[in-house]
């Protein structure tokens, strides 16, 4: 039996069976003894391979997402610690070190603030406790930056190594937590919310936050630490400021000791043509073209005909975060799982020529954001890719009357 247990393929097969048993209705307590008997330890990488195997076998990402909480309960206490001669994640400023410090603060918000305030409100029903909870959830919303760094900085590198299923599952759960926080704030702001519903929703949301902390610490971080190179961690550290941090602001920037100096950084890459670029109506130097595009009062992103992000402008006031790590990433991986099918339909319609553009408009805090997708074609009508143009149109909507040069 021992030789079977040591067989990697056999162990993955058993793991897959256990997950399927859970999916088919067995309880965690029924499955856990078999798991503990047959598996003495499992690495984060094997968990990743197992989830990908389920998807390759046809299980939808959404179904694995539904099992996510059960996964954590089964694996808790069984994941072996991955011993490393050095622990870069303990270095101040390392991306994982920052993620972990943020998790400590998020854990405090949930356990030291939300849970006690929720219990107090449950017993008293006083508006005072609702106000405390509203403050707590406003603070907890900072979690959006923590999740955004995961999704836009970590996930692209995971995809580069073929780890695609866990990011999709985790992004879906991130969005569930985001939606639950928003819903909690709406319920707390309403005078007509049912107390029982409010307590149940916020309590469930708080538990999900804690469960996600466990998943990150026990599965995600060990997996990426054993996969990504120091050069890649350096790029993640460089791009983190673009998105921002959750409560914890790093005091120093992490500089890896063994960064590959033979690998030229993107910033050092010289343009192939240092002369003029010829356009349909004029000539510009690369410097002029780059500066001009960055001066436009809109954000532009270009995705090529194969679906890879190739370029985005870097204006002073961006609407959506665009870390450089998304360059080369497939566009469907840049969106939450719940909206991927919409993105794929847009790409399909623009590529096929069914539409030349598709427009959306959404409210984002004080901004009224107009998002437009255009099919980009050459003179022969060949599809080259898709250009996304994003703009805050609220200031434009407020314009009235006239302002002429002569009135200056």
Automatic annotation (TrEMBL):
Coiled coil: none annotated. Residues 15-81 form the DUF438 domain. GO terms for cellular component: plasma membrane. InterPro entries: DUF438 (IPR007380), Hemerythrin-like (IPR012312), PAS-like_dom_sf (IPR035965). It comes from the Bacteria. Residues 95-224 form the Hemerythrin-like domain. Signal peptide: none annotated. PANTHER family: BLL2471 PROTEIN-RELATED, DUF438 DOMAIN-CONTAINING PROTEIN. This is Hemerythrin HHE cation binding domain protein. The lineage of its organism: Bacteria, Bacillati, Bacillota, Clostridia, Eubacteriales.
